[in-house]
Amino acid sequence: MHRPAILFLTSSLSSFVEGDLRMLKASYPVREVATGGGPAGSFGQRLSLVLSILSGVLRTDIVFAWFAHNHSYLAVMAARLLRKKSLVVVGGYEVANEPEIGYGALLDPGMAEKVRYIIENADCILAVSEFSRREILAVAEPRRIKTIYNCVDTSVFSPDGPKESVVLTVCLVSTANIRVKGLDTFMDAARQIPEARFVLIGRALDGALEILKRDAPANVEFVGAVGQAELIGWYRRAKVYCQLSYRESFGVALAEAMSCECVPVVTDRGALPEVVGDVGFVVPYGNAEATAAAISDALRSDSGRRARARIQTVFSIGERVKRIRTIIEEVSV
Fold first, then answer.
1. CATH topology (fold) of 6-151+316-332
2. pLDDT tens digits for 134-143?
3. Does residue 39 carry a pLDDT above 70?
């Protein structure tokens, strides 16, 4: 059976993107181009990247691109001209339009046009949740669209040992994320449950940590960037995991925590209720009183095992691998 050669293209090698790369390499010949996702760089660097993408499209059968950004725009355009196939995973930011919090690629008219082109011209658009699928369809009409959930390696993200009275949240700590990730609500809820230990893990940027520490209650602990092993250790200790975001297109950290038997407390925004299902607590965004009450209930809850079982059943690596292989076979015809 012919195995199509794949150009794997991404602007960011985050853990879930790397998971797809490993999966594809196990089944297909893969050429990899990572753009870095940072500033555009010099003219020479930009030209080198453009040539790498064009060369990759020319030498492979299918483009598999993560994120509908500039790199995907060029790759999808080249794939159409060269009569190659293209699949693009939309992460969520690309189809977001949230002027209230200054979030979303659609706030930039030029980028919005590129996103629309990608959605309309890729051979298949992959959404990471039903929420994301609805947002994609509100932007443009794709040729084909499939929802394939992000996944978690439940053999790695697994429980081990007793739970502690720890309430955890994990994110990049930036001034924008104080609102986007609901860190202000996390602090306010901590103030109402002084007997519990609240922990915020994540790399800090732009003075956000100082802003949060200024009014943080004594039971909040700030942990900087950590490696995967240390992060899993925190997931295993924490009884409750909070994702109090203004919006999420999936919530990989939430799924990782649930896989380690954390009881989830999430907002009623984006795909968060979709991920949690009936195994956690859903609260209105920005409502500190409701959040604190839900966290108190979650600390007494015994639904951690059910949370892990949901991840194993709905968000497994095996299911994502099977569905992506099926899509690749279908577009290869």
1. Rossmann fold (3.40.50)
2. 999 999 999 9
3. no
Query: How far apart (Å, rounded) are the C-alpha atoms in residues 275 and 252?
Result: 9
Q: What phi and psi, each to the nearest 5 degrees, are found at residue 56?
A: -65, -45
Query: Which residues are CB-contacts of 82 (< 8 A; sequence separation ≥ 6)?
Result: 57, 58
Matching CATH topology for 6-151+316-332 and 164-314?
Answer: yes
Helices (H), the chain: 15-27, 43-59, 70-81, 109-121, 130-139, 175-180, 183-192, 208-215, 228-237, 252-259, 272-276, 288-300, 304-314, 317-332
pLDDT over 90, % of the chain: 87
> What pLDDT is attached to residue 239?
98
Taking the C-alpha atoms of residue 278 and residue 268, their distance in angstroms, rounded to an integer, is 13
Q: CA nearest 15: which of 313, 302, 243, 227?
A: 227
| CATH of the structural domain 164-314, one choice from 1.20.120.10, 3.40.50.720, 3.40.50.2000, 3.30.750.24 | 3.40.50.2000
Cα distances from 103 to residues 37, 93, 181, 199, 293, in angstroms, run 17, 7, 12, 25, 29
Instruction: Write down the domain spans for the chain.
Output: 6-151+316-332, 164-314
Q: Give the span between the Cα atoms of 325 and 327, in whole angstroms.
A: 5
By the 8 A CB rule, do 44 and 37 touch? no
pLDDT digits (tens, 9 = 90+) for 233-286: 999 999 999 999 999 999 999 999 999 999 999 999 999 999 999 999 999 999
Q: For 252-314, give the DSSP string.
A: HHHHHHHHTTPEEEEESSTTHHHHHTTSSEEE-TT-HHHHHHHHHHHHH---HHHHHHHHHHH
Spatial CA neighbour of 64 closest among 87, 82, 81: 87
Task: Say what the pLDDT of residue 202 is.
Answer: 96
Amino acid present at 47: L
